[in-house]
């Protein structure tokens, strides 16, 4: 049975694709951003918009690896979490957007294969369960959308 997992998948996809209660979704913001601003640093932020987008990719990759039972997968380095200057450059912006979209689709497809039993299982190599990871990704996306919005304005 997949009642609760279906609700989480819907939340993950709503924050990503649209019709989110909090405002623009990840996709809506991605499609509105001009490439010339995505790799600009601001005095009040350590990160650029494109680094934040890569960070959303990184956490989807983390979740996919853990769903595939990869106990050893970690994101220990700055590059693992925030990307490289090449990946997060304005020249690479179209590829970065595609990477996020493709990774999100892969993440949702993987979740669609599973059922509610997943939610009580411990994430391999971590101290929390998949329910906490999945709800955390919804919260994480929403938090970083706010950061992107501030950097964009």
UniProtKB/TrEMBL annotation:
A matching Pfam family: DinB_2
Residue span(s) of domain DinB-like: 27-148
Gene3D superfamilies: dinb family like domain
Top-level lineage group: Bacteria
Residue runs in coiled coils: none
Protein name: DinB-like domain-containing protein
Species this chain originates from: Jiulongibacter sediminis
């Amino acid at each position: 049975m997949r009642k609760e997992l279906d609700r989480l998948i819907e939340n993950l996809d709503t924050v990503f694709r649209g019709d989110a209660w909090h405002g623009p979704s990840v996709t809506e913001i991605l499609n509105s951003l001009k490439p010339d601003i995505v790799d600009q640093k601001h005095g009040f932020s350590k990160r650029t918009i494109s680094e934040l987008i890569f960070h959303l990719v990184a956490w989807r990759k983390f979740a996919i690896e853990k769903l595939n039972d990869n106990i050893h997968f970690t994101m220990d380095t700055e590059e693992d979490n925030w990307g490289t200057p090449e990946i997060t450059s304005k020249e690479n912006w179209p590829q970065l957007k595609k990477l996020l979209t493709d990774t999100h689709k892969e993440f949702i497809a993987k979740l669609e294969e599973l059922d509610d039993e997943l939610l009580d299982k411990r994430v391999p190599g971590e101290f929390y369960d998949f329910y906490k990871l999945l709800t955390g990704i919804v919260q994480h996306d929403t938090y970083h959308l706010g950061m992107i919005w501030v950097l964009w304005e």
